Amino acid sequence: MKITYYGHSVVLVEAEGKRIIIDPFLTGNPKATVQAEDIQVDAVLLTHGHADHFGDAVDIAKRNDCPVIAVAELAEYCSSLGTKAHGMNLGGGHQFDGFHVKFTLAFHSSSLTVNGQTIYMGEPAGILLTMGGKTFFHAGDTGLFGDMRLIGETNSIDAAVLPIGDGYTMGPEDALLAAKWLRASRVIPVHYNTFPGIEQDGDGFCDRLHKEGIEGKALKPGESLEF
Hints:
227 residues, seven-stranded mixed beta sheet
């Protein structure tokens, strides 16, 4: 499995010929190292509907003739904009061609502002993505919650991305505890240093992970981790 980070919470996951992008906020992302039109994928996965995660989902899905996979309300919205879409919900899993997706809890909110009106986009979620015999966990935007223990106990997670920006999501202290509970083999911090108010030291966070016996890697935008 190969994980490439494109800034904020954007990750591209590749294994056995399949390419999946999660939360493709590229246009308007000051940390992005690629443009939306350069993305070639088999599916777009969304953790929730906020603009800094929804991003270029519709354009990428249309250009690649691939589905947006998201919680039901968000998937329906994408479908209304002309994309292929597959709606799911929290706790549900589905086997696609070459990969499996399961949505988990995330404690956050989810909406989009369209023509000045805020529209509810279903529950926020985390994503367990299994492909090529490896399982990747994208926590989405979330605060710390006790059932992260359960997610760690019931899944063998090879890599996880956790938000550390604070303010809107977990900060480093809570993310450190989340990493312990999830029992992931390796952890990548995300959702920090994109905008004012979420400045954090990703390398410092990873140093703290290492002291707890957890492999941490603060990827720079455009960098990849392969295992």
